[in-house]
Amino acid sequence: xxxxxxxxxxxxxxxxxxxxxxxxxxxxxxxxxxxxxxxxxxxxxxxxxxxxxxxxxxxxxxxxxxxxxxxxxxxxxxxxxxxxxxxxxxxxxxxxxxxxxxxxxxxxxxxxxxxxxxxxxxxxxxxxxxxxxxxxxxxxxxxxxxxxxxxxxxxxxxxxxxxxxxxxxxxxxxxxxxxxxxxxxxxxxxxxxxxxxxxxxxxxxxxxxxxxxxxxxxxxxxxxxxxxxxxxxxxxxxxxxxxxxxxxxxxxxxxxxxxxxxxxxxxxxxxxxxxxxxxxxxxxxxxxxxxxxxxxxxxxxxxxxxxxxxxxxxxxxxxxxxxxxxxxxxxxxxxxxxxxxxxxxxxxxxxxxxxxxxxxxxxxxxxxxxxxxxxxxxxxxxxxxxxxxxxxxxxxxxxxxxxxxxxxxxxxxxxxxxxxxxxxxxxxxxxxxxxxxxxxxxxxxxxxxxxxxxxxxxxxxxxxxxxxxxxxxxxxxxxxxxxxxxxxxxxxxxxxxxxxxxxxxxxxxxxxxxxxxxxxxxxxxxxxxxxxxxxxxxxxxxxxxxxxxxxxxxxxxxxxxxxxxxxxxxxxxxxxxxxxxxxxxxxxxxxxxxxxxxxxxx
Length: 602
Fold this sequence. Notes:
By secondary structure, the protein is of the alpha+beta class. The chain is globular, with a radius of gyration of 30 Å. Helix 11 packs across helix 13. It folds into three domains: 12-109, CATH 2.40.50.140; 146-281 and 441-555, BirA Bifunctional Protein, domain 2 (2-Layer Sandwich); 300-429, Gyrase A, domain 2. The termini are far apart. It is 30% helix and 24% strand.
């Protein structure tokens, strides 16, 4: 290769070496007739020095150097490594003790003026995200983004190494398949060869990986691209990546042990230290009733206490009505030393408004003053019940209580959102701390309180733990969680065709729909499907959490923005009518519609 070293290689032990470097001009400056340039590539930055008196190639002045080798232009230099002048070393840079005295230089490609600075910048001086996405190929040159891409590559490499050591086969499954109801909307792809028929982009490899178990592959994994037509959020994208795996002849503990081993192996490779395993476990119902979430951030407290039995006889009409309808009452103690003194009366009103935004009917509060609970509603509680509340919630002088009430799931979910807001506002969320845990003992089904429709808690392929006709059916499913996010869902799968049909029927599918949408899969289960199970880990989400990014867009090379649009290539975009005609798809623009005429026809 022409270059002898990268821009991150050279150190003091290389003094006197003749080297060739190639890279991008990050910064340049004129220091008394000598030009200093920070030459950058993905590996680092090296300071190079142009002195017209010793540089060959017809460079006559510093002005010519700075004009020729402009910012972000690609150049090649040949020179000698030398020690920096004492006092000018940069200890923040691994190459900061040396510089390269240029003997000859060549412009490989001149750059247009970049739309924003690419050096190490604080986030508040970066342009808005849409500009960064429009020029993503430039944004990716920034050290922070380079580090994110390198981190992502390394963690995937380490995971692959571990799985291969455990006898897993890496097998690709189709991206184009049939549309099946798996929870989210499909992206639909028309077929030119079969007019009027469509493929669906894979939401996940779920059905194919289970059929690989039927095919005796025993241990499969894949770094899978998945597609779901749903609204973008900070932790969601229309297309995303998951580490997908499936195993035969296993129980839930086998899957969890394997994942713990894989993450611990990757952790040591990334950070050079051991990760504490096994991970803690928390049951789904316990997680909801303590933290208001099935993926709680357990790095800080603010837990809920059940108060339904404590206040069931209180002459407070709101609580009485809720409890009589099967609802719950729960409270959170904001201890004086943590939060009580920081939250004044105006703050309480602000949190009451926020609670309503979270779907709660309201928020009841009490504060312990001079040994007694005070608020605008304590008159509706007997002294005995107030004392029971103090005892149950371990109330001390100055503590502030927030109490919520309503239907079990909706109330705990709303309270969990309030807990998250309080944790952020009070500065309780620690930085640089990572808490993995398993959330298990999940239900198989959940019933929509409005429609009464039965839905799968995870998906329809989870193995039920008891009879489908029982009032409560547990599922052999679990989630891996980290710092308040779900990293992945796993389960044992149904491997009996008759049981799979029965679960589909429980979810409201008749035999005709089962056959039309899942017939091929149910048929496969009838050919000796082994007991099996698996899990899928969200790669984007895992990297974002470990790098403490606010959005998974910061760990994806070319993401979509908040509106699911690519600012880089302006997709989605309209397609030429010729292509639509070829696919036998009709196109009609809004501007082509005669609304008056259409309404007259109607």
